[in-house]
Amino acid sequence: xxxxxxxxxxxxxxxxxxxxxxxxxLNVVTTTTMITDLVKNIGSEHIxxxxxxxxxxxxxxxxxxxxxxxxxxxxxxxxxxxxxxEGKLVEVFEKMKNKKTVAVAEALDKSTLIGSExxxxxxxxxxxxxxxxWKLATNFVVKTLSEAIPEKKTDFETNGKTYLQKLDSLxxxxxxxxxTLPKEQRILVTAHxxxxxxxxxxxxxxxxxxGLSTATEAGVQDVQKLSAFIIENKVKAIFVESSxxxxxxxxxxxxxxSKGHEVTIGGTLFSDALGNAGTVEGxxxxxxxxxxxxxxxxxK
Length: 300
Ligand SMILES: [Zn+2]
Prior knowledge:
Elements: H1 2-23, E1 26-30, H2 33-43, E2 47-51, H3 66-73, E3 77-80, H4 90-95, E4 100-103, H5 131-148, H6 153-179, E5 187-192, H7 196-202, E6 205-210, H8 220-232, E7 237-241, H9 247-258, E8 264-269, H10 284-299
Parallel strand pairs: 1-2, 1-3, 3-4, 5-6, 7-8
Helix pairs in contact: 2-5, 5-6, 6-10, 8-9
Bound molecules: zinc ion.
């Protein structure tokens, strides 16, 4: 009888402890799908993670819904991209003064960034397209989460190390794929200027029809200028982006056609948002591989 009682007490003690641990998990909110994927890889089961933006969502134009404000108010840490990528959320973050808001871009040395006159930050915010930057962002997330939950530091560091290794093998794989495309064929024409860091890292000339932000629409002149460039450089394919309406790229294709030339639409790239959750392209690594395969296959 006594033994049973002790056993029962032990069970109760342990279940209470477990419940306490669950409740004590930190609430972490992230903005873009790229950041959600990164933080999920590091924080794993130790955090309650909520991502605001889904697949196909354009962060430049994204406005916080009432539900988002609720999520943000219950957050212990908010990870966002920064450099004015989430242009319409800046105000909301400013109101969250008591919250810990962390811009992933803080991990980077600003003097190494690509400049831009489109953003209030004066920098191109599409930093995830340089894998070396994303490695720095990984270390930054490990550090931030370790400071917030010191007792799980070892786990965050182990997760970070594993993820860095995955990013290294991704980089090696992509370099091999891109090496099969002759240098003169490495011209990437897309809907908006999201791929400048990609171009710098992998030696592509990159031209976006819209400026760096989708908030500015491409004009007739931009279309004319770019279609002349496509013809002159014998570019075989141009690309739609999953988070930008495809009419801009279709207008460009039509303009090339009206001048008696052909350019195909090489596929849809994931630029400012990953693919659907639960699919390969729904992860940063899967997205990158898919993009590179799509680009190389269409331009060959
Ligand atoms: Zn963008």
